[in-house]
Design goal:
The structure holds 2 protein chains of 2 kinds. Chain A is of the alpha+beta class. Chain A has a domain at 3-29 and 44-77 and 103-136. Chain A is 41% helix and 25% strand. In chain A, the strands form 3 sheets. Chain A has a 3-stranded antiparallel beta sheet, with no helix packed on it. In chain A, a hairpin with a 2-residue loop joins strand 3 (53-59) and strand 4. In chain A, helix 1 runs antiparallel to helix 2. By secondary structure, chain B is mainly alpha-helical. In chain B, helix 1 packs antiparallel against helix 3. The longest helix of chain B is centred in the C-terminal third of the chain and has 34 residues, at 84-117. The chains are: A alpha+beta, B mainly alpha. The A-B interface holds A 3-4, 7-8, 10-11, 14, 47-50, 54, 57-68, 113, 116-117, 120-121, 123-124, 127-128, 130-131, 134-135, 137-139 and B 14-15, 18-19, 21-26, 28-34, 36, 39, 41-43, 62-69, 84, 88, 91-92, 95, 98-99, 102, 105-106, 109, 113.
């Protein structure tokens, strides 16, 4: 009962977490570290499908899965990119600093995907609301 | 207590359509999951043949009619084959069918209510 909301909310959560990770990446686009430190790592949210059913709906010919679960992983190395910038306060005697290996255009396209995915899952919530409301009118 | 107020076929249709909505929710939640295959819920053809069979034992349980099948739609580069347009259209259609099935159930409800009211 009402399990569509649960399934759709896993999708909404997944895309919101993706947006969180993207905002973290963009905020750290210019976070420079010294050469002997680790670079800031890009975060990515990796989703995988829940193949086990939501309680309630199991048919003779298989089950309907119950949404998506996710984990946060690193999308770039601690190596980062070495940039020659001898004026920088963190530059060592060779003049190099370590930039994170984050690509702004990649983050922006990922952001559009995450935003649209979020909206699509909210549209599912909206449609489920309509369906349940129609069912609640039964017998009035 | 089952008053037999809802036609068994309508009951199966309501459960099947709700299962289809849930499958759509599952597919949309996995819109960008790598190597994900979309699931479709099918029950109409099974239900139709059960209703057409003469001397059938009748419509028993919804679970006998529900089957899920993997979508054969073409895959994107990351191995995912969910089409958002298709899922949105299917979702809207399923909602309309659900409304139709509920209306079919409602007719019987209203008739019984009138009898109880004595008018």
């Amino acid at each position: 009962m009402l399990s569509i909301f649960g399934v759709a909310s896993t999708g909404v959560n997944f895309y919101r977490s993706s947006l969180d990770a993207i905002s973290h990446n963009v905020a750290n686009l210019n976070t420079v570290r010294a050469r002997d430190e680790f670079a800031v790592q890009r975060q990515v949210v990796v989703g995988s499908a829940n193949e086990s059913p939501a309680p309630g709906i199991v048919g003779a010919g298989g089950v309907v899965g119950s949404g998506v679960s996710f984990r946060v992983a690193h999308g770039s190395s601690t190596e980062g990119r070495l940039v020659y910038d001898p004026e920088h306060v963190l530059a060592d005697e060779t003049g190099y600093v370590r930039h994170p290996d984050i690509d702004l255009s990649q983050e922006m396209t990922d952001m559009i995907i995450a935003q649209r995915g979020y909206q699509a899952n909210l549209a599912v919530v909206q449609r489920a609301t309509e369906a349940y409301q129609a069912a609640l009118r039964l017998g009035r | 207590m089952d008053l037999g107020l809802v036609n068994p076929a309508v009951r199966v249709a309501l459960d099947g359509l709700m299962a289809r909505q849930e499958a759509i929710a599952h597919n949309v939640a996995n819109l960008t999951t790598p190597n994900f295959t979309a699931t479709n819920v099918e029950f109409e053809s099974e239900l139709k043949s059960a209703l057409e069979t003469p001397h059938a034992a009748g419509v028993a349980s919804t679970a006998d009619f529900l089957t899920t099948e993997a979508s054969g739609a073409p895959r994107q580069q990351n191995g995912n084959n969910v089409s958002l347009e298709e899922q949105t259209l299917l979702g809207s259609e399923t909602n309309l069918r659900l409304e139709l099935a509920l209306r079919a159930a409602e007719g019987r409800f209203n008739a019984v209510k009138n009898v109880i009211g004595g008018q």
